[in-house]
Design a protein that fits this description.
Helix content is about 35%, strand content about 20%. By secondary structure, it is α+β, with helices and mostly antiparallel strands.
Length: about 475
Amino acid sequence: MTRETTLRDDFRSLRRSTGASRPPLALLVAASSVGEAVGDLIDLDPERPTVIERVVRGREEDSRMSRFHATVRVAPTGDSVEVTDGSPRDGTWAPSANGVWTGGERLDGRRWFEIGERFITGRTLWMVVSGAARDSRASELHGVSPAIEHARREVELVASHVALRLARTQRVTQALLVTGARGTGKQVVAREAARVLADKRGRKDVPFRQVAAPALADGTAAADLFGVVDRYATDVRARSGFFEQAQGGVLFLDEVGDTPVSEQAKLLGVLQEREVIPLGGKTPVQFDCLVVAATNRDLAGLTRTGGFRDDLYDRLARFTVHLPGLDERPEDIPVIVHALLARHGFSGEIDPDVVDDLISRAWPGNVRELESVLERAIAVAEVEGDGIINREVISRSATRTAPGSVPVVTPAAPGPTTRSGMPSRAELLAALEATGWNKTEVGHRYGKHPRQVSRWMSYLGLEKPV
């Protein structure tokens, strides 16, 4: 079987699979002591109850979960689920050993959870999601939201088509436009396109070049992009440009919405003809690569005001991916957290309640801001802690940020991993201050061991002042 035949079959399979239906509701493993389980989905049958079993992956398991820990039933309206601790067994109802936790309390009986709400069993955080897709372990685009699923499919489609045309030695004319706010991961889409293209071409990797479009008016940047002939200027030697260097791969054109108007016609001509004329040269040089353009601006709006050529927009926007901010796809946050920890080589554990806080928090800087928070937490956990990212680690890493910065996580109320009987944050702070931060004395007041007081402090983000 030829590579062209394989690519064509993959392409057709992709087209057929785009209409596949999914169960309306599912449970997402948002955090777990079994790291490999993060991102997994349990599809919920609307016709019958679903039993949550102990999370197991190979030799790893969440030992704090019971074998059959909880039972979930979808509401007739299909927009919420009822969670009950335990499961039916031998004609009776058998509760779990450690219960189901939410809002800082152990679930008493049963409770309804709406889409986006979370609960904990053992050391595993669950999130109710709707219309979710399974995360792709191989993909650079991590998430389960419909937006990320669309992005993966669009990238797969255009990269597969480019690979097919290259296999046929046909000209490549495709471009992919990626839009989204700053920090949403537009460059990651370009990297994913390069990964898929390499996979479809049976290669380890393909060329990847990146250039900032606003710099095209600068002579040096233009030389980098288009190339330059020998002796174009004093001490200048001939070199190929990024378009030519990206042959068979991906050229990432960042901030394309800020391309100077004076350079847009030239860029359009290059994309239409798929050839460049090096600076100082006369002979066109052809190239065949996938051009991925990214912007955080409204290009359609700019075309109406004259800030962006409509013909250039039409050329770029034949395949499009839009990356919403994290506030529009909170179900992606836990999967992204897991991927970022792995990217930074973190082999420890992150507490489920920390992930719960990260999901609840606003992220105006999106993935870039989230990565910054996690990178600081990793440093504190590995250098000053025991390799576990808990609320105390997050709090300590946040106190070291620049003056005026926003604290990372400061819980104002008990969360889903605390036990009943825990005092409020204000009450515990008052008790600590009254005893000079003596955990033993505070423990006596509540009939608890000092270690339990330490756990409360960690959970509520309280730290003894220096």
